[in-house]
Amino acid sequence: MQTSGFSNAPVTRLLIAWIVVGSMLATLTDTKMFFYIQVVPHFWAYWQWWRVFIWQACYTNSTEVLFACLTLYHLRIIERLWGSRKFASFILLTLPYTSLLPPLILALILRPLSLNTLNYLPAGPTPLLFALLAQYHAAIPPTYRYKLATTATPTPSTAAMSAITLTFTSKTTSYFLPLQLSLAQLPGSLLCAGVGWAVGYAWRNEVLPCSEWRVPGWVVGEKGSGAGAQGRGGEGFEGLRRRL
Question: Looking at residue 173, what is its pLDDT?
């Protein structure tokens, strides 16, 4: 039976709480202008390079907060599949790449190629969400497939009616909410989504350094599997998962 709510997903619950609280604090303190990035003037005029470390801290509008929270809630299945320790390790390992790469690519590559047209990068952890979405795409198989057939109008040159068949899976609707995030503030939001997806697959293929690193178990509330744990009935879920 599928587990509901945030059972066995404490890190996901913390991330959703941070997205909501961070956005509220930015609104109440009137500090939203410190999180988004404009290459000019923030980088080349004011030299505010510290923005590359905080621009993923919160979203600046309620629509993106809603879509991000719903997306994360759906992706909690990844934490249940991996365990909280591996999930938290993935977040910490990919965070430097998802924070630094989008603004640097925009400032050093895309802006010069676009003749200084591209200049804006929206705030929010969209790259991190798409790095998680890449894991969902690769690790969770679809449970069923279905087809939608449409019939085209016959043309004067042919009396036959051609049918267009589209194949979908049980996972198709899961991509609608993150798609909204990637299209929310074009083209910057699309850049964030693309970089996040690439970082997620780079981690999965062990291209990123230290991909096997894990945070200490106490960070996510895991207890040791020594004699005390054996006396309470075994190694626990994490130990059994590693053995399998």
Answer: 85
